[in-house]
Amino acid sequence: MNQPTPEQPADVVARLRATFRTGRTKPVEWRTAQLRSLREMLTRNGPDLAAALHADLGKSSAEAHRTEIDFTIREIDHTLDHLDGWLRPEPAPVPAHLGTDASAWTQYDPLGVVLVIAPWNYPAQLLLAPLVGALAAGNAVVVKPSELAPATSAAIARLLPAHLDTEAVAVVEGGIPETTALLAERFDHIFYTGNGAVGRIVMRAAAEHLTPVTLELGGKSPVFVDRDADLDVVADRLVRGKFLNAGQTCVAPDYVLTDPATAAALEPAFKRAVEALYGTDPSASGEYGRIVNERHFDRLSGLLDSGRVVVGGDSDRATKYIAPTVLADVDPESPVMREEIFGPILPVVTVPGLDEAIDFINDRDKPLALYVFTESEATKSRIAAETSSGGLGHGLPLAHLTVSDLPFGGVGESGMGSYHGRYSIETFSHRKAVLEKPLS
Ligand code: NAD
């Protein structure tokens, strides 16, 4: 199924670079035509892609559409609606010493040949949404799907060449050897989504060619729950955000920080919320996903005894099922708190109050997302001012990344650079400074 492309990475890149040099990818008409074809690919082949996502991750068709296929269609539509405006040169004031007849502006130039490396957890969205931005900015693009989502990788390798300009867009399937070979080539930008260990490998390889990188990484995204919050609303929204895709979401709430009384009151609320969403036996719910592979299943199973089980706790290796699980009385030094969980386990850690919660967050790596549930504007302001995270969500996890006009990206250990909407144009273009002084 997973046929490697016969063409060698060096040949792929050389071919795409030759195309870029002809100027073919630069006209806005070419860009919008590619985006429209990609849109058509998604609408026409939505069921095929959803089936692949089900095969790889047990995603329900509704979830596959909502979080991957329709998500990408929305990104395309938003880009098509605004691209002309985003690409418009921006005039800059000219200082007096250049005279009144001089003018200056910035213009967005495509970078050239861009490499997009995608992970397995949202294997369609996290490959196609960067592709949308790279094409909209007028680049030739090599995409490398994750080998850990083989059905989706194969579907993308089949569908993209049938819909996009194959002289300018190439799919290279494969794992570490293929990616290593690609990374030896010179690109004009590398856009990597995945874990920080590989992020470092990517950045090292990019340094050889002085290639700029965007690193969309992960980490532990905390949730602060204030004692004034409506805990049924909190539990419902956290359960929906955490257990989507069986917790395998880069911006999933990783752990809850709250005071001991609120932690105790949250326990029955979590039980009600899980049951309302997935029934008494989530393994029988068509809406609940599975763990991507045995390695991650074993890693996650080893974290289940890091605290007292409030909800869930059961698992089945044969079907890679781990129940939606909430753990209480979790020691901050326990294994579940030492790594990004990236699975359906939600530990609750208690702190005396807001000051200690802020210290707890600032003592650790800067997270990709931080979520806050409070009615207090003062608390919201303090957290916004005193912590650093890729994104900040008040009252609703995950949702900030669905706002096309917000940049999506990390800070510190959670990554560098951002994308979505006009921020993708910033990422995949060079903003060229231009000065013009008439000759006469
Ligand atoms: P993964 O294992 O699929 O790896 C990502 C990509 O890196 C794949 O295409 C893979 O082939 C490639 N790769 C793996 N090892 C490599 C190596 N040694 N050299 C070169 N390339 C290599 O996915 P993953 O890293 O397990 O993804 C999970 C991580 O990604 C989590 O930390 C998660 O938080 C993060 N993530 C971040 C975002 C975001 O948008 N910021 C989104 C999803 C996932």
From TrEMBL:
InterPro entries: Ald_DH/histidinol_DH (IPR016161), Ald_DH_C (IPR016163), Ald_DH_CS_CYS (IPR016160), Ald_DH_CS_GLU (IPR029510), Ald_DH_N (IPR016162), Aldehyde_DH_dom (IPR015590), Aldehyde_DH_NAD(P) (IPR012394)
Gene3D superfamilies xrefs: Aldehyde Dehydrogenase, Chain A, domain 1, Aldehyde Dehydrogenase, Chain A, domain 2
Active site as annotated: 216
PROSITE patterns to which the protein is assigned, alphabetical: ALDEHYDE_DEHYDR_CYS (PS00070), ALDEHYDE_DEHYDR_GLU (PS00687)
UniProt entry keywords in alphabetical sequence: Oxidoreductase
Pfam families according to UniProt: Aldedh (PF00171)
Record has Oxidoreductase as a keyword: yes
Entry annotated with the keyword Oxidoreductase: yes
Stretches assigned to the Aldehyde dehydrogenase domain: 6-434
Family label: Belongs to the aldehyde dehydrogenase family.
Protein name per UniProt: Aldehyde dehydrogenase
